[in-house]
Design a protein that fits this description.
about 55% helix; four-stranded mixed β-sheet; binds glutathione; Glutaredoxin
Amino acid sequence: MAAPVVYGPGVSTYVRTVRLTLEEKALEYRLVEVDLLKGEHQEPAHRARHPFGKVPVLEHDGYSLYETSAITRYLDAAFPEVSLTPTDPRQIGRMQQAIAVVDAYVYKALVTDIVIPRVLVPMTGGTPDEAAIQGALPMAELCLRVLDELLEGVSYLSGGGLGLADLHLAPILAYFSRTPEGGRLLPSYPNLQRWWGGIASRESMARTQPGLG
Ligand SMILES: N[C@@H](CCC(=O)N[C@@H](CS)C(=O)NCC(=O)O)C(=O)O
């Protein structure tokens, strides 16, 4: 069986989630960079892989898949030796809930509205809109509170062992924790802080460290 191929830039949080899944499962894979700043994700070659022009895309033995949560579920089912999905129905429900919360609310609140203006905008010569960042804080705090509650009394988001939900959240926390807002807000969320301390020191995080964060 050929090694899976991941298309996307190493700096993308979604791409990092797929890479973390592969790393935690100790699988060989190849990363094919798609440069978002150069607009490569909108070019016909990438549009043929992903009709919406986003990253990541996974290719594996003639099978092509886009949407990060579909990719991580596929990898976990296709390579079951190291499982990142619990067997208990309630833990499966909690894991799916956490992934949906990350996709629907956390990514926008922490990455789109805080990390991008704080990190990417200055890198490309712009000035962040401070009023917009201030306006984003209530939703960011709601997200942090919800994640903190999900981690109450448990080590990982599903309530079982390390699982896919943790790998969906980890790349976002890696960037957010380095912003001034992250540094100021995270200490108020002790469960999330404890979780992040454990995740941040994993080998998979070191092996997928992007240039930005
Ligand atoms: N729903 C998609 C979202 C993927 C996504 O938004 N990726 C970002 C990079 S982190 C992207 O492709 N951005 C390029 C753009 O929006 O033009 C998934 O789960 O894979």
